[in-house]
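Input structure tokens:
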């Protein structure tokens, strides 16, 4: 259903555009709402989207990729689920990188299309410098990343950890997380202040996390960059424990991983059937990239990843 009536809870006297309680068409993506306080001194913009409860395609081959519209600045990945329904469930931090390096070409972004993957296309994730603008705000690097969820560009500078919103609803029990990678670390690991950390070699990260998407009071729960591996709602995790340095040239061999999700608690079957759990799958070229620590040039190639369900 594309026509949805949305009502925002506001402070007394505040105005909402488009009108609060009006029916809007969400079939073409986000609808932007602007809320202005009664005295006109404060305003806030919200982007609202509805993600249909479709069964997540378990095979991540990364073949379906396109340039962002309408400016064609960077790459976006999507997939097709059952019934050939498009699923725009993959996100990157590319839109945040665009704030610091607006002149960058699509292939200069941290997350780009890889022409030669294991089979067909793949994904290239590279830790990049954010230049002079990033240095001003102590956000000197941007790790290449790709994850199931969404990225809040408006929050990228204000609260970077809350910009990455991890996970999409699932109604099947995931058992294993598999895929292929190549990795080459950058030459110099630096902290967020740009100081070299001697002896530290950068490493990537890849994991799948299953978590309850509501709390005990039925309120929505989303995991962010600061709690995606630690939140109390986490039910199961599979995480690549160690990456080999394989090199990333065409002549280098792909490394395979196949990991079980380790369950910390039993699943509630009724909750599962009603999409009461979210699955987050995350790939990044620098394990501490969320705190702007890493090595420029660290490169992680990924392809042919799969979630194996019960």
């Amino acid at each position: 259903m594309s026509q949805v009536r949305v009502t925002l809870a506001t402070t007394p006297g505040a105005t909402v555009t488009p009108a609060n309680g009006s029916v809007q068409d969400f079939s073409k993506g986000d609808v932007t709402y602007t809320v202005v306080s009664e005295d006109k001194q404060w305003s806030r913009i919200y982007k609202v989207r509805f993600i249909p409860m479709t069964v997540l395609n378990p095979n991540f081959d990364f073949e379906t990729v396109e340039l962002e519209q309408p400016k064609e600045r960077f790459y976006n990945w999507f997939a097709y689920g059952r019934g050939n329904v498009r699923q725009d469930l993959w996100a990157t931090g590319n839109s945040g990188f665009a704030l610091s390096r607006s002149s960058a070409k699509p292939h200069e972004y941290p997350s780009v299309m890889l022409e030669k993957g294991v089979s067909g296309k793949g994904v290239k994730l590279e830790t990049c410098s954010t230049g002079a603008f990033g240095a001003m705000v102590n956000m000197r690097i941007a790790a290449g990343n790709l994850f199931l969820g969404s990225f809040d560009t408006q929050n990228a500078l204000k609260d970077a950890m809350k910009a990455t919103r991890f996970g999409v609803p699932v109604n099947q029990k995931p058992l294993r997380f598999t895929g292929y990678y190549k990795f080459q670390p950058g030459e110099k690991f630096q902290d967020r202040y740009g100081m070299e950390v001697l002896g530290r070699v950068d490493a990537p990260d890849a994991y799948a996390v299953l978590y309850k998407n509501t709390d005990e009071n039925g309120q929505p729960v989303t995991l962010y960059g600061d709690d995606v591996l630690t939140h109390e709602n986490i039910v199961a995790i599979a995480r690549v424990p160690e990456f080999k340095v394989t090199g990333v040239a065409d002549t280098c061999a792909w490394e395979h991983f196949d990991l079980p999700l380790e369950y910390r608690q039993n699943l509630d079957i009724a909750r599962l059937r009603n999409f009461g759990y979210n699955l987050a799958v995350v790939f990044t070229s620098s394990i501490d990239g969320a705190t702007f620590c890493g090595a420029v040039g660290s490169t992680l190639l990924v392809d042919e990843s799969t979630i194996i369900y019960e």
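Residues 94-100 form the longest helix (7 residues). The chain has a mean pLDDT of 93.
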